Amino acid sequence: MENHEYSVGLDIGTTKIVAIVGRRNAHGKIEILGVGKAKSLGVHKGIVNNISQTIQSIKAAVAEAQSSAGVPIHKVTVGIAGKHIRSLQHSDYIMRDNPDQYITEDDIEKLKEQVKKLVMLPGEEIIHVLPQEYKVDSEGEIQEPIGMHGKRLEANFHVVVGQMGSIRNIARCVREAGLEMEALTLEPLASSESVLTKEEKEAGVAIVDIGGGTTDIAIFKDNIIRHTCVIPYGGGIITDDIKEGCSIIEKHAEQLKVKFGSAVPELEKDSTFVTIPGLHGRPDKEISLKTLAQVVNARVEEILEMVNTELKAYGAFEQKKKLIAGIVLTGGGSNLRHLRQLANYTTGFDSRIGFANEYVANDKNQFLKGPEFATSIGLLMESLKIRDKKNTPNPVEETIASAVPENKETETAEETPEFRTEEIILANTQEGRRSKLTIGQKIMESVKKFFEEVE
């Protein structure tokens, strides 16, 4: 199998590292070739804090993915998150040298490169420059400017910024694991690729990806990314609360959360208990499911209040910016029972759980259905998109090129060779441009010249 036929997404999470190998089938859906999973040992709240352990975890996940896919892995598209991530809005423009020529992908790239030169805070680096809408000369609210004519090309951008040190640490871990980093993508953007529909993005939607160490948010409206942020709390802190609140070890706390955890205590019975085995001959411990739900609820409510603060910061409660499609909860933390009901109550928006298998063609055993795979599948989709872009030219530019004949002058020359050549020569002089002769006038001039020579 050729290397360009498949792509790889690598999700370096707080609790697990996942590598997914896949390719696009004939129907445009994603065919998963292999999956590798390893416990994440060197990442805390989305940030690498132990280089050697992270490298070992990446190697283990990639080796498993290579073995199950039966193909070598060289390039990967990697996700980034962490509390150091912030976003800002910025407008910029370029003046085009030749407004008679239509706007191309190169003009847009030139504008993006200009935005990348923005001066950031010390130690920060731009991760993404995402165009929202364009303005060509005086015409605004343009979604796709390629093919248009104009002198001034302007755009509003959503700029995602992160700490240079954190970005360098991820890049080093990937490199020392023997891989090449094809692209670095913000994790909530990757998750949105795999779980959101185009209709939701148009209507207005917030994706809330509750991972092990962070909760990532991305807000879309009118098919445009409007806001992104990372909250430094996730499922891991809920486990820590259960561990402290119930005085049990972390392993048992995680099992309790996954199997019996609930976000709404009122839905649990007082009389229901679960038994935790004692340590080294100590007596077993009985824990009420209602007590467990109260511990979980306190922390989940705190996370959802932070989500609410971000929704307010965007303006989601204003009529023009209203999120008609509500909230999509995804990530491993969204598996928590009754989370959707609590999210509806806390935020006031309808919510659903986002599953990542909608775009996957061969997930027969529903292994990838879990929302915990949303980010890794999204990263794979992003990698496939990068490959597609490299292999095929811009479709808008192709359409324009096919609509305009490549050499109009040659076609006309075949029809009227004796007059076309003379017209080109005339057109190249200032005088000729002012007074181009018609075909009839040229014939009269030729006849007149002939009689003058005869005389």
UniProtKB/TrEMBL annotation:
<dbReference type="InterPro" id="IPR020823">
    <property type="entry name" value="Cell_div_FtsA"/>
</dbReference>
<dbReference type="Pfam" id="PF14450">
    <property type="entry name" value="FtsA"/>
</dbReference>
<keyword id="KW-0472">Membrane</keyword>
<comment type="subunit">
    <text>Self-interacts. Interacts with FtsZ.</text>
</comment>
<keyword id="KW-0131">Cell cycle</keyword>
<comment type="similarity">
    <text>Belongs to the FtsA/MreB family.</text>
</comment>
<keyword id="KW-1003">Cell membrane</keyword>
<feature type="domain" description="SHS2">
    <location>
        <begin position="7"/>
        <end position="195"/>
    </location>
</feature>
<comment type="function">
    <text>Cell division protein that is involved in the assembly of the Z ring. May serve as a membrane anchor for the Z ring.</text>
</comment>
<dbReference type="Pfam" id="PF02491">
    <property type="entry name" value="SHS2_FTSA"/>
</dbReference>
<keyword id="KW-0132">Cell division</keyword>
<dbReference type="InterPro" id="IPR003494">
    <property type="entry name" value="SHS2_FtsA"/>
</dbReference>
<protein>
    <recommendedName>
        <fullName>Cell division protein FtsA</fullName>
    </recommendedName>
</protein>
<dbReference type="InterPro" id="IPR043129">
    <property type="entry name" value="ATPase_NBD"/>
</dbReference>
<dbReference type="GO" id="GO:0051301">
    <property type="term" value="P:cell division"/>
</dbReference>
<dbReference type="InterPro" id="IPR050696">
    <property type="entry name" value="FtsA/MreB"/>
</dbReference>
